Amino acid sequence: MKQSKEAYRAYREKAAEYVGSRHTSRRRLRVPVDPDLDPATIPLTHLNVANPQLFKEDLIWPYFKRLREEAPVHYCADSQYGAYWSVTKFDDILAIDADHQTFSSEFATGGVTIQGTPASGEFMPMFIQMDPPRHDEQRAAVAPRFAPTRLAELESVIRERAGAILDGLPRGETFDWVEHVSKDLTGQMLATLLGIAVEERHRLIAWSDILGNPDNPELVASPDIFYNTLADVGEYFIDLWNERADQEPGFDLISMLAHGEGTRDMGPREFVGNLVLLITGGNDTTRNSISGGLLALNQFPEQYNKLRNDPGLVRNMVPEIIRWQTPLAHMARTANRDVEIRGQNIRAGDRVILWYISGNRDPDAIPDPDRFKIDRENARHHLSFGFGIHRCLGNRLAELQLRVLWEEILRRYPVIEVTGEPERVNSCMFHGFTRMPVRIPA
Ligand code: HEM
């Protein structure tokens, strides 16, 4: 079905409503962390682990430890995002993720993130925020792009690009790893998946930053920026959709959406929504794994030594990096019915937050979880990609990018030093870095 740009006029109109305004809940979203509060003694009823400031300042760990030990299914009655349940133990998260009949991802009832402003589900419906059967039909349209044989074809492309990025890095001076390596490699891959020129990656990265972080004032000062960006994305890709709908089916994601049985008749809002999913899904996540891995190796120098002595460990290190970093700190669900977990009564309509970042540090599921171990046994036993029908579609691609990048790094540089404290993302969903100063010895 051909699409029309006209459809995105509503997005511009929505943006116009907001010009000059700020998010209504902005004041409440930015709750400063009181340095005198002790996570070990603060009353459980006051514990709000979703405060983005805790993530930005990397203070979150003792809070999750306390919840796992004392209130693994915990109700927070009042937060900047309203009331919500926190689930923090590995096995509970897995069980809820596997039960999509009880725990819905539908955007109409709240979707998959706790971040809420501006409310975007209506404007960008996407299959990660749908339940079956629509979810399954739309996922099936793009899934073949991520099949092992298709990914194998990408390996040499990734290797070449990783090599070019690494060869261009300065020696003997401090530079930002996030900007020069993590963002650039993932942005290039995104352009390839969408079948557009790699030179367009900067645009994709900027869009992804805005659309994936609607409530982060460092990236989206007011909602009009968000809605105008949605319109920009729709208008940019609609011509490609129309062009590719007329051509033979190809293996870029636009063509797959335009020809897929479950997606070819979707409307312009779903088109833009699914594009946003594909753009943001693989962007911050892979980017932050690339940065997080380098930081982990610097924090655990004996592991870095081990890696230098045996570069074959890269394959096992990759899932360990993804566990360690947990680039998506949480995914949310909404209970479809009353349900009891660990003696807690979750009611139909309640919001339930699955804290992957906590499950991945649960000692009952992962031995010695606070240690980064590149030769960890059973390293794939982690929650970072979710579980069940929404399990990450790009997991193998993410692993491939990390593996190839690290193989190429080790060929060139025995050491890359993190020279200062990294700056972290202001979000309780994307767990990662905005800046990481590093130096490659001359
Ligand atoms: C280390 C990198 C990555 C991590 C940690 C990650 C994490 C996740 C998680 C946790 C989910 C499940 C969401 C849920 O259960 O509600 C998910 C879904 C998804 N991811 Fe990833 N992801 C990564 C890389 C990628 C890449 C590279 C792509 C593709 C370009 C991608 C595309 C998707 C898509 C399309 C979904 C939706 C699947 C569905 O709803 O059926 N991801 N990802």
Task: Provide a concise account of the structure shown.
This protein has 442 residues and is of the alpha+beta class.
Give the SSE layout:
Blueprint: H1 9-18, H2 26-29, H3 52-56, H4 60-70, E1 73-76, E2 84-87, H5 90-98, E3 103-104, H6 134-142, H7 148-167, E4 174-176, H8 177-194, H9 201-211, H10 223-245, H11 253-259, H12 268-281, H13 283-299, H14 301-309, H15 314-325, E5 330-335, E6 339-341, E7 344-346, E8 351-355, H16 356-359, H17 395-412, E9 417-418, E10 423-424, E11 433-435, E12 437-439
Parallel strand pairs: 2-8
Antiparallel strand pairs: 1-2, 3-5, 4-12, 5-8, 6-7, 9-12, 10-11
Helix pairs in contact: 1-10, 7-8, 7-17, 8-9, 8-13, 10-11, 10-12, 13-15, 13-17, 15-17
The structure holds protoporphyrin IX containing FE.
Q: Can you walk through the features of this model?
A:
- It is a single chain.
- This protein has one domain: Orthogonal Bundle (Cytochrome p450), CATH 1.10.630.10.
- Strand 10 and strand 11 (433-435) form a beta hairpin.
- It is 45% helix and 9% strand.
- The relative contact order is 0.18.
- The protein has helices at residues 9-18, 26-29, 52-56, 60-70, 90-98, 134-142, 148-167, 177-194, 201-211, 223-245, 253-259, 268-281, 283-299, 301-309, 314-325, 356-359, 395-412; strands at residues 73-76, 84-87, 103-104, 174-176, 330-335, 339-341, 344-346, 351-355, 417-418, 423-424, 433-435, 437-439.
- A 5-stranded mixed beta sheet has the order 1-2-8-5-3. It has a 3-stranded antiparallel beta sheet with strand order 4-12-9. A two-stranded antiparallel ribbon has the order 6-7.
- The model is unreliable at 24-28 (pLDDT under 50).
- The chain has 442 residues and is α+β, with helices and mostly antiparallel strands.
- It binds protoporphyrin IX containing FE.
